[in-house]
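Z., the sequence and structure:
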Amino acid sequence: MADAAFGVLHGRVYRLGDDVNTDLNCSGKYLPGMNEATIAAQVFEPVAPGFAARFVAGGVIVAGRHFGINSSREQAVHILRRIGVAAIVAPSFGRQFFRNAINNGLPVIECDVAGIAEADPIEIDLGAQSLRLPAQDLTRRLAALPDAIRAILREGGLIAFLRKYPDWELTP
């Protein structure tokens, strides 16, 4: 089912490998005491030297298995939002990272990433549940997101959602 409230994300792919943990984008050695700008300048440096310098806001991270494993560090999502990550696509995510991303309004999409290369133009339509690589004429169907997650993402995160809908209750 299409959802017009979600626009189509257009961006460029920034590839990362498997098992990229939260310490690689928000290193504990910078916490506490460093501001987000300092931490963002080091994002993914151990696995992708120069990533922060070449990343352009609106880009989409496409990673391997288990993206965001390691900790419940919510700052890891804040750093990605700060540099302008539009979405993250990976075959699987650390569950705590996945939920932190949703709560902070960052779309995280589980799907097959085979054939998606660095710098590929990418289109993600959450409403139509599709991911498209126009240069390769490749389209992948995405799993449907639960209604509650769709609502949180539409509002830009959990806090924004709860401010708009203070009386919201989960119904069975």
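The two ends are 21 Å apart (CA to CA). The chain has one domain: 8-164.

Let me know what you think.
H.
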